[in-house]
Design goal:
Length: 321
């Protein structure tokens, strides 16, 4: 008996040694792959050294910089894409909500829809810069006082930050909770500044959490990737969400077709989030399970325009096509 036990222990130990060696070899191969990607891909995708860059492909981060940092970064107008997803989920509960007529103007006849606010075709325009709103204690009040509406512009694309701030108030009225609550429930992160829900451009988030959120949205887009959805929102809520998404794929397609925070890059299978004015970009490809993230430049003291890298999106599409 003792002889058999000793033999079993030796066999087990040898098996464990083989597994350790295999894992060590795999780790070396992965490290080599990461280094090659860093040299041949990441370093060539952007002209300005970014504060954060992540290239995620086929279930792994293949290269990047700054993504292990615990420092939260403001993702600027990428926030609007996240808000669009919050409203998409809300529309699942009430498909009539997106077409609900909101009275506007003094003629008693004009109306706009949530749908139009989401894709910047409501006719709204901002009278003051966003930076001034951040100095205010009441963002909704500030947005209401400093947003204009032009009936002639309704139906055409006209970008408005304050319209998205008003979306946060609409969400609160319809659901009885703040968009911050939705951020927490759906995406498992929270942002709050002096009690204000930032629905236009101020979400502060850790880089790795932004990747998690992007993976979740990629799962929504592809629908069949159920594991990621359940991982982020829990089994019961996840399965309910998956069933609703499967029942109504039209909403997902509608989001892409109507510029709800995500736009299709012309003549390609790539999509991108609403970009931020400090050079924040997020590009993804559903079929390739690819996500490419760039968040502002690393150098300090740069002018706002110097943070940008408009070639990043083009470079990602060219390299990974």
């Amino acid at each position: 008996m003792s002889g058999k036990l000793t033999k079993y222990k030796i066999t087990k130990k040898l098996t464990l040694l083989k597994i350790k060696k295999k894992l060590k070899r795999k780790k070396k191969e992965y490290t080599k792959l990461m280094r090659e990607y860093q040299e041949n891909v990441c370093d060539k995708l952007t002209i300005n050294e970014p504060d954060v860059m992540i290239i995620y492909k086929g279930g792994n981060i293949v290269c990047g910089t700054g993504y292990k940092s615990d420092k939260k970064i403001q993702i600027m107008s990428m926030t609007k894409t996240i808000v669009c997803w919050i409203f998409m989920i809300l529309f699942q509960k009430s498909s009539e909500l997106k077409k609900y007529q909101i009275p506007i103007g003094n003629d008693g006849k004009s109306t706009i829809t949530i749908q139009q606010i989401l894709n910047h075709t409501a006719g709204y325009y901002d009278k003051k810069p966003m930076e001034e709103m951040y100095k205010s204690d009441d963002w909704v009040k500030f947005a209401k006082e400093n947003i204009g509406w032009d009936k002639k512009k309704q139906g055409t694309y006209n970008y408005s930050n304050f319209a998205y701030i008003l979306l946060g108030e609409i969400y609160r009225i319809v659901t009885g909770e703040s968009v911050n609550d939705a951020y927490s429930k759906v995406f498992k992160f929270n942002t709050d500044k002096n009690g204000n829900s930032d629905t236009a451009g101020g979400i502060m988030i850790k880089p790795i959490k932004l990747l998690d959120l992007s993976i979740l949205i990629l799962s929504f887009m592809s629908i069949e990737d159920e594991k990621n959805i359940i991982q982020h929102v829990g089994e019961t809520a996840g399965k309910e969400m998956i069933n609703k998404l499967k029942e109504n794929r039209l909403l997902r397609d509608e989001m892409l077709q109507n510029n709800y925070g995500i736009r299709k890059i012309k003549d390609s299978e790539f999509y991108e989030f609403q970009d931020g004015y400090l050079g924040q970009y997020l590009v993804f490809n559903i079929k390739k399970k690819l996500i490419a993230i760039r968040l502002k430049s690393k150098k300090k003291g740069l002018k706002i325009e110097d943070h940008d890298d408009p070639k990043f999106v083009e470079n990602v599409v060219t390299y990974f096509s």
